[in-house]
Design a protein that fits this description.
single chain; about 280 residues; alpha/beta; TIM Barrel; 8-stranded parallel barrel; 8 strands; about 35% helix; DUF72 domain-containing protein; UPF0759_sf; DUF72
């Protein structure tokens, strides 16, 4: 039976930590992750997007979670073409030209840092979220293909933030050729920056959906403006047919909530988990 795993995009967001979701006695780094893993079987590690982690850190993540737990690890911003502050790079790379050599070395360090999760059986996928500026076309495809080539031995998931990718007949075949998971999203519809909720299955191993919330400020404004949303039971239930379809074509489905204001993501994830419980057993 397909494993349907529900969780949140991050477990250390300051808004979540200050919300009271973590009980007293479990608010240090180890306690938070162990408490999270008591409730959900998958999490997105978003901190590697902002700075390269250390292998020591990811080894601790593996040690603090049970067998079967999954980390979907966001790619470092430089690897996906996002603006990257020099201070986010290791000190010895900050003066390096922004060229292929820098990308190759950055990838090597990122892969070394994430490898403890893979060796421990905790890695779900690497998640490459490409910026809205990456519009489909030959140059963009070359950039994505080069990223995939660096990560050729790794599970690889792609979230496009430029909606035109999903209006191009080439995209599905392109990701299938790369053996890459197409990441589905839930956002508010009928905005210029809206992304379609229906994303094809492009690898039989994994499907990923990220629930960004339905703020009218999606694509604009501050992070809080973009992701502030409390999912209603109706909004979550309408996803059940899509989830069923994904599960029919993949070995594992990850549903990750990114409406990260206070504990809204954790509450939505718990409700989605409850909705799925009658039909699917999800490990805790």
């Amino acid at each position: 039976m397909t494993r349907i795993l529900v969780g949140t995009c991050g477990w250390t967001d300051p808004a979540l930590v200050s919300s009271g979701w973590y009980p007293r006695g479990r608010r240090d780094a180890e306690g938070r992750l162990r408490h999270y893993a008591d409730h959900f079987p998958v999490v997105e590690a978003d901190s590697p997007y902002y700075a390269l982690p250390s292998a020591r850190t990811t080894r601790a993540w593996a040690d603090r979670t049970p067998d079967g737990f999954r980390f979907d690890v966001k790619a470092f911003s430089l690897l996906t073409g996002h603006p990257t502050r020099p201070a986010a790079l290791p000190a010895d790379l900050r003066g390096h030209p922004r060229d292929e050599g820098l990308l190759t070395e950055t990838w090597a360090r990122y892969a070394e840092a994430v490898d403890p999760l893979r060796r421990a059986g905790r890695l779900g996928t690497l998640l490459f979220q490409f910026p809205p500026s990456l519009a489909p076309g030959p140059e963009a495809e070359s950039f994505v293909r080069a990223a995939r080539e660096r990560a050729r031995d790794w599970p690889f998931a792609v979230e496009f933030r430029h909606g035109a990718w999903w209006h191009s007949p080439r995209t599905t075949a392109f990701l299938q050729d790369l053996d890459a998971t197409a990441v589905g999203v839930d956002t508010r519809q009928n905005l210029p920056t809206s992304l379609p909720p229906d994303t094809p299955v492009t690898t039989p191993r994994l499907a990923v959906v990220r629930f960004h919330g339905r703020s009218p400020h999606w694509g604009t404004g501050t992070k809080e403006d973009r992701f502030r949303h409390t999912y209603t039971p109706t909004e979550l239930a309408e996803w059940l047919p899509r989830i069923k379809s994904l599960a029919a074509h993949t070995e594992e489905v990850h549903l990750l909530f990114n409406n990260c204001c206070a504990d809204a993501a954790a509450q939505a994830a718990q409700h989605m988990q409850d909705l799925l419980t009658p039909a699917h057993s999800t490990p805790s």
